Amino acid sequence: MTHDEIMQQDQQYIIGTYARYPVVLSHGKNATLYDIDGTEYIDFMSGIGVNALGAADEEWINAVTESLHKISHISNYYYSPNTCKTAQKLVELSGMNKVFFGNSGAEANEGAIKTARKYSFDKYGENRSTIISLVNSFHGRTITTLAATGQDDMHKFFYPFTEGFKYAPLNDIDKLNEILTPDVCAILAEPIQGEGGVNIMTDEYAIQLRKICDDNDLVLIFDEIQTGIARTGKMFAYEHFGFKPDIMTLAKGLGGGLPIGVFVVGEKCEKVLGLFHHGTTFGANPVIVSGAYNVLSRVSQPEFLNEVCEKGKYIRQKIAEMKIPIVKEIRGKGLMIGIQIDGTPKDYTKKGAANGLLLLTAGTDVIRMLPPLTITYDEIDKGLSIFKGVIS
Predict the structure, then answer these.
(1) Using one digit for the tens of pLDDT, what is the confidence trace for 96-152?
(2) In terms of Cα–Cα distance, which of 71, 93, 101, 64 is closest to 288?
């Protein structure tokens, strides 16, 4: 089929919930992708932070294929060696206690919310179930995670939304304390807001969140769906702050390209959920967790994490040296980068796609870059050359 025929087929048979770019991707290697006509694209978005190891990584493919040749699915009524060793790896890397495997970031956040509310119910009974999240946050598109998301535009059409959420601005501890009423059981926050604009939580604010939760016996949940799995140059972004949350949610880069969502709990919450309190049909799939184990084993190496930091610094420095008039600020950690501009980001991401560079937007005025963690400097330079032409 031709490029146009595939686009027409998509429009005819798929519900139109995505504003797709007119690009029909076919194959690729690492951060270099190709469409069905052979046109080359440099990938600065990695499937929205999912393809941590880039496209067609042979070691990851071998890990997944080996598992696929054995059994594709077993259900959670039985034990799985692949699942156990991946859970152990997550616990050892995070310093937390136990893991629940699901299928997506939204599902991971749903599980974290349920765990936090049950923790409070078990200790304090009813009427202590409100969760504070942050303005401009993003936590998913289920009815509950939409309610948890601190963006007014997300709170339309699908009424009634799940009750029990209120919102405080990022890095404003006074505003948070103003809404810290006795009915609050947890605080849910992203260490760096991805969809909301690559907005970075300060160390001081993070430390205050931990103290407030400790002082009031609240559950601190860090949504690391975008920031986790080495994206910021640490295995988990909370490591920048020097303490652990009570619950952490992961997805995106963990699967290396296959769907997975995980919430990891510390000592405070490890015994909250018991038999039949939570479940999933496809979670802990042996094929997918095999891919996740391969990702974890590789990106957690100190030299790999150092490379992520250095590549991120290199990209931010090169963009700063371009001295582009519309660029107001360049921010981020590791390979999670936001370029705040005086303009409409979508205009430039469209131009990028038309010129062979795949970019993301964030918030209302930010161009976001989430390249594969394995991107080479040659690919970075090619992408930045296109970026300079597009944004200038």
Answers:
(1) 999 999 999 999 999 999 999 999 999 999 999 999 999 999 999 999 999 999 999
(2) 64
> Residue type for 95, please?
G
240-277 pLDDT tens trace: 999 999 999 999 999 999 999 999 999 999 999 999 99
Measure the CA angle with vertex 355, ends 350 and 360; round to 5°.
40
373, 308 contact by CB (below 8 A): yes
Q: Which of 379, 262, 385 is nearest to 318 (CA)?
A: 385
What's this model's pTM, rounded to 2 decimal places? 0.97
What is the C-alpha to C-alpha distance for residues 233 and 239, in angstroms, rounded to an integer? 10
Q: Contact 131/185 with Cβ under 8 angstroms?
A: yes
Block residue for tokens 């880069």: 253
Distance of CA 106 to the CA centre of its chain: 10
Q: Are 266 and 97 in contact (CB under 8 A)?
A: yes
What gap in Å lies between CA 6 and CA 23, rounded to an integer?
10
Cα dihedral across residues 242, 267, 334, 332: positive or negative:
negative
What is the tens place of the pLDDT at every residue in 197-224?
Answer: 999 999 999 999 999 999 999 999 999 9
Tokens in use for 229? 């799995």
* Beta-bridge partner residues of 248: 222, 264
User: How far apart are the C-alpha atoms of 105 and 374, rounded to whole Å?
Assistant: 22
Grouping H, G, I as helix, E, B as strand and the rest as coil, residue 233 is coil
Determine the residue type at 251: A
Taking the mean position of all CA atoms in its chain, how far away is CA 123?
A: 31
Contacts of 114 (CB under 8 A, 6+ apart): 273, 277, 278
